[in-house]
Amino acid sequence: MSALPHIRSMAFFDSLKFGPSYGFAQKFAGEEGHIATLPEIISARAKSPEAGYLWRNWFTSSSSEYFGFSKGGVPIIIVAHGVGPMVGLTGIEAAYEPRSFRGDGRPDDHGEGHISLDEFRLLEGGHYGDVIIVEVDKVLAAYEVPFIEAATLTQADRDPLIAARMGKDWRKALEMLELRTLDEGLAYTGLRPKVVDSGGPSHYWIDVAREGWPFAQLLAVGQTMESHRSRDDGGITLSIDVHCNDRTDGKRFISVRPGGRIQRTHQGPAKLRKHVQNLLMPNPLPPGDGGFFCVKQFDNQWFTQTPKNGCAMDTGWPEYPVTDLEVVGALGKIVALDETMFFRYDVDDVLRQAPPEANAYYKSSEPKREQVGDQDALVAEVVFCRVEIDESQKIPAEDVLDTDYDLQMELLERLEQKA
């Protein structure tokens, strides 16, 4: 039986990898489900309150976009919704594999993806299914500054790429933003407010595409933002951006099971992080031999932090709940030499200052930049304390939580039962 059978649509996020985002979304959807395309997300937004979850969050889609040259040598953009070589985790990861175009083996792309010219020709010819082909010159003609300037509804009517990307309900969704801009009295300039920033191939290297490596990227849509449009003299408007997702961008896919409605998308594993208590699980291991802990408050409750290795920043991730905390001894000080941005230090430097009865510490002030001798440093005061911890339960390590689908579903199931 699938996890959480009553939930038919769920979002999956990862800051970098496709496995815990697209891969987990695929697993949740099952063989009969799918990952939402950009037109599906736009249609769902058009049927949802502008202040709701779908508008207030950005999403990556299973729609993809390809830039290259047609058989006749015309620069074109091919838009594919749920079909093509980037359907499936294997195809996506293959397209986004770093490549070198200098011939020295060093990646020199900017995070964009690529497919082979043969695959581009198959797309162009309809081998994968229905696609939309847009001539780049027609996009350029709609703007004074293409791919940088945002669009009003009037400009969007002239830009064939916006409709190709966003689907049949693009105008209804953008009209909602225009009405909100007008209702809130925002100081836009011109006859109509700028409502969509259709970013795209401003970084596409024509020579790379000409040499047989057409560009290939997934399409994403941003959340509603009050934008101060200085670069295109649009004043202040409510708008969204529709753009190509680079390899290094975050990824948030919507998984749709049969019968699922995107308007009812569950926030997914991201909801677990909103309250640290959601993550506590029984600890099957016997109590340890103690240690020297860095403690921190999460949701107004003290926790130990997961240990760090050597001279490094604190992990900032909770592990064991603290049941009792008593301050002992005088204040200490952490001095991170040659640091001006990242507060990296060795726990042993703190331990040497600690009174014998202390088994923990916490920072009582944010690190401040100081001059120590002739060196720049970050300095913070620390409070030493004696703590008791509950080792019968713990929070899974962050890398475990992020990469374990079954664990995420178990925790979400428990959270749903509490609701």
Keywords:
five-stranded mixed beta barrel, alpha+beta, 20 strands, eight-stranded mixed sheet, 12 helices, 419 residues
Describe this protein's structure.
The protein is an alpha+beta fold and 419 residues long. The chain has two domains: 9-266, no CATH class; 281-394, no CATH class. The protein contains twelve helices and 20 strands. The strands form four sheets. Strands 3, 4, 5, 6, 7, 8, 9 and 10 form an eight-stranded mixed sheet that branches. Strands 13-14-15-19-17 form a five-stranded mixed barrel. Strand 9 and strand 10 (235-245) form a beta hairpin. Helix 2 crosses helix 8 (170-183). The radius of gyration is 26 Å and the shape is elongated.
Give a brief rundown of this model.
This protein has 419 residues and is of the alpha+beta class. It contains twelve helices and 20 strands.
Number of strands: 20
Mean pLDDT: 91
The helicity comes to: 10-25%
Tally of DSSP helical segments:
12
Q: What count of domains describes the coordinates? A: 2
What coarse outline follows from CA principal-axis ratios?
elongated
The main pleated sheet reads as:
8 strands, mixed
Please state the structural category: alpha+beta
Strand portion, in percent?
Answer: 25-35%
Distance between the termini: 22 Å
Rg, alpha carbons: 26 Å
Which residue ranges are poorly predicted, with pLDDT under 50 across at least 5 consecutive positions?
none
